[in-house]
Design goal:
The structure is a homodimer. A 5-stranded mixed beta sheet of chain A has the order 1-2-3-4-5, with helices on both faces. The first copy, chain A, has about 160 residues and is of the alpha+beta class. The radius of gyration of chain A is 17 Å and the shape is globular. Chain A contains 5 helices and 7 strands; from the N terminus they run βααβββαβαββα. Chain A has a single domain (about 5-160), classed as Aminopeptidase (3-Layer(aba) Sandwich). In chain A, a hairpin with a 2-residue loop joins strand 2 (about 50-60) and strand 3 (about 60-75). Chains A and B meet through helix 2, strand 3, strand 4, helix 3 and strand 5 of A and helix 2, strand 3, strand 4, helix 3 and strand 5 of B.
Chain lengths: ~160, ~160
């Protein structure tokens, strides 16, 4: 594994967005990515940063990212959420994903959070096996609920 | 519904913790709550607050809470997560939960986030029906993954 894992800097943002969009194209949902470089810059850097992004760099190119942020459990307090771990298509199978995963665990441990958490698709058995072998616990009886702005507006119009 | 819904203030923290612990006792997991008033105060109030808590107040008593915080989607940008919505045992069935839910949706809409999100247990059909009727979408093919500090340490010791 000859990639270097480090925290992202603002100048990495174009390549970070490139990684995000490449994965969305691979998942056949290119139009689902509505985020811009400007939003990544304003939300990820500076004193009030909402997230922290780690990047894997190889030959001056960003070949993977892991994006994390803090959450808050009413039982445990501050936790760290791993939102996305991406390795670019042509750089897979070289240990880059594992190196990013390890860096995220190290960061969570250093930050003293009571829990590191993320989600995984129920059909992705390779990932599930990897996570369980690494010491993670999988909770299989929860559904994710989401409401988009149109649904919010409809609900509020109907109930106010 | 004669409860007032408002943002929590630091003086509400003892009653907020009371609500959290009452629910944990009801769920037969009283020892799972390791959070303190001090942590709720430092994480929920002030300029760097990690979360926002709404409370339902009735006769000068906190009878419910809804705790939210921002997350970050690599596709959509800033989102709002509803971590917990609790109504105390003896105040259920009075519309307090619905009023807190509506306040959270209003807050998400005002904040301009692209998504409001939360999780629900797959056997909680009453809640699932309520959420779907309110316009939420349920994603049923994800597992939650969690790693605690002991597992982090074991992983790091084994891999570094």
């Amino acid at each position: 594994m000859d990639a270097v894992i480090r925290e992202a800097t603002p100048t990495d943002v174009p390549q970070i967005l490139h990684c995000i969009k490449e994965l969305a194209r691979f998942e056949k949902e290119p139009d689902a990515v509505t985020i811009s470089e400007k939003e990544l810059l304003s939300e990820g850097f500076g004193e009030d940063a909402l997230f922290t992004c780690f990047v894997a760099e190889r030959a001056e190119e960003i070949v993977g990212i892991a994006l994390v942020y803090f959450r808050f459990s009413t039982w445990k307090g501050r936790t760290l959420h791993l939102e996305d771990l991406i390795v670019t298509q042509d750089q897979r199978g070289k240990g880059i994903g594992k190196a990013l995963y390890q860096r995220v665990i190290q960061y969570a441990y250093e930050q003293g959070v009571e829990r590191l958490e993320w989600v995984v698709l129920d059909w992705n058995q390779g990932a599930i096996d990897f996570y369980e072998k690494s010491g993670a616990t999988l909770l299989k009886n929860w559904y994710l609920a989401q409401m988009d702005p149109n649904a919010m507006k409809t609900y509020l119009d109907r109930n106010t």
